[in-house]
C-alpha cells in the first residue's frame, strides 16, 4: 500500500486539515480538548486512561471529550492493542485560519489560537522553572522577541517562512531510524501578529 510505503520512508502520509468551518472549530475551542489533542500529537496513539494520566484528568471525562473530537473529525480510533482502544490524530497538521467574512469562524479560531498560546506558554514556563540550569544551557533553549513595522502582506509572508522553519526535520517523527543519536523531541512556538493599538503608517499622498 502507498500509505505503508510512505510511512516506511519516514513520510507522514496523513492528510493536512484546512478548515474555517465554525462547527468544526467550536469542537476544538475548549481548553481540555486542546490539551487532549496535544497529548495525542505527542504520544502518537493513546487511550483515554493514558491521556488522563498525562493531563491530570479522569478517563471518563477524557472519553467524553475524545468522542467530541472524533465526531468533528480531528481524531479516530487506532488499531486495538489487546483490550486497549487507543486514539490517533487524523491529520499531520491543521490550518484553522478563519473565514474573515464569518464572525463566528473568527471568534472560534481566535479562541483556539488563544488556548494554544496558553498551552505552549505553560509548557515553556514549566521547562524554564523546573529543569536544571545545565540542561537548559546544553540544549540551547532560547526565548526571542522582536518588534518591527510591516504590511499585512509582509506579515503573511513572514508567517509562511516561520511555518516551514522545521521542515528540515521532516520524517523523524514517523521514522525513528532518521533521528540522530542523542536527539530529543523539540518544540517551536512562534507567533506573528500586528500591534493594533498603535496606528498604522498613513498612506503616502
Automatic annotation (TrEMBL):
Region annotated Disordered, chain positions: 82-109
Entries under PANTHER family matching the protein: ARSENICAL RESISTANCE OPERON REPRESSOR ARSR-RELATED
Highest taxon of the lineage: Bacteria
UniProt xrefs under Pfam families: HTH_20
Gene3D superfamilies per record: Winged helix-like DNA-binding domain superfamily/Winged helix DNA-binding domain
Biased composition (Basic and acidic residues): 90-100
SUPFAM superfamilies in the record: Winged helix' DNA-binding domain
Protein's name in the database: Transcriptional regulator
Keywords (A to Z) from UniProt: DNA-binding, Transcription, Transcription regulation
Domain HTH arsR-type: 23-102
Species of the source: Agrococcus terreus
